[in-house]
Structure formats: structure tokens, C-alpha cells
Design a protein that fits this description.
The chain is mainly alpha-helical and about 150 residues long. It has a single domain (about 30-150), classed as Arc Repressor Mutant, subunit A. Helices cover about 65% and strands about 10% of the residues. It has helices at about 10-25, 30-35, 40-50, 55-65, 70-80, 100-125, 130-135, 140-150, and strands at about 55, 85-90, 95-100. A hairpin with a 7-residue loop joins strand 2 and strand 3. Helix 3 packs across helix 5. The protein is globular. The model has no long low-confidence stretch (mean pLDDT about 90).
């Protein structure tokens, strides 16, 4: 059976982009992140380091989609605050690795809890049918996120 492809008109695409952006911005600043002085970029980098474990700076730059200079400054700030550790590759002195410290892992866990609590509070205030539609859309949104990652340079 042939599949039909739904093409978004400009207004619908703009609405989708806008709501994704608003959700992201509203979930970003948690009390724990603000108290730790984390910018959205530092928070994202720290979360990626925690999720990936020990990761090379070049791989981290690609994963985060930021240039090496900005990443270097961000890592220096995270090292200074004791949230990540940086080490040089013994086989290639030009390469560097980072990993989260226990304090960095604890902070990321606290941020996750705060974001989950914020989502749960907001979802509880919606009618049941609206909550169900949002939860039913998760699989499609996850697929969309993966496709977007695959097509971006």
C-alpha cells in the first residue's frame, strides 16, 4: 500500500518549530542549572558528557554542533567549576578527552528530576485527552528528531 507523505505548509511548519523552541526554552533553566551558573550551552555539553561517558573533544563538538573554540571555552568553564575532567590522549597529544566528575553527574541528575517535575506538573493541568495526544505523538517526534539530526551538516 503506498504511503502518503504529508507536506507541511509554511504556517504549520512555523508553528511546529515555534512550539518545539518554546518547550525547549521553558525546560532549560532549572533551579539547579541556574544555581550552578550554567548557560544553556554548558548544560547541554555537560548532559552529553554524562550520557556518553568519556568522550573526545572532536566527537563532543560534532554531537553538540558547536565550533571547537566555543567548546574549548565551555569545557574550561566546566573544568573550573569541577563538573568535568579533561585529559590529553597519551597516543596523540593533540587529542583531548573529557568525562564528568561525580559532582557533574549529580547535577545532571538533579536537572533531569527538575525538568521531569516541571513536565509532570504541566501535563497534570491538561485535560486527559490532550495528555494522551501528546504522549501518542512521542514516537513520531523522536523519529523526526533523528531525521533532522541525519540531514543537518
Amino acid at each position: 500500500m503506498p504511503s502518503t507523505i504529508t507536506r507541511l505548509d509554511l504556517e504549520t511548519a512555523a508553528r511546529l518549530r515555534a512550539v518545539i523552541g518554546r518547550l525547549s526554552r521553558r525546560l532549560r533553566p532549572t533551579p539547579a542549572a541556574v544555581a550552578a551558573g550554567l548557560t544553556p550551552t554548558r548544560t547541554s555539553v555537560l548532559q552529553t558528557v554524562v550520557r556518553e561517558g568519556r568522550i573526545g573533544l572532536s566527537d563532543l563538538a560534532v554531537a553538540e554542533g558547536i565550533n571547537p573554540t566555543q567548546l574549548s571555552r565551555t569545557i574550561a568553564q566546566l573544568v573550573e567549576t569541577g563538573l568535568v575532567e579533561r585529559s590529553t590522549d597519551r597516543g596523540d597529544r593533540r587529542a583531548a578527552w573529557v568525562k564528568a566528575t561525580p559532582a557533574g553527574r549529580r547535577l545532571v541528575e538533579r536537572i533531569r528530576y527538575e525538568r521531569t517535575d516541571a513536565l509532570n506538573l504541566a501535563l497534570e493541568q491538561l485535560p486527559a485527552d490532550e495528555r494522551e495526544r501528546i504522549l501518542a505523538a512521542l514516537e513520531g517526534l523522536e523519529g523526526l528528531a533523528e531525521r533532522l539530526r541525519a540531514v543537518q551538516p
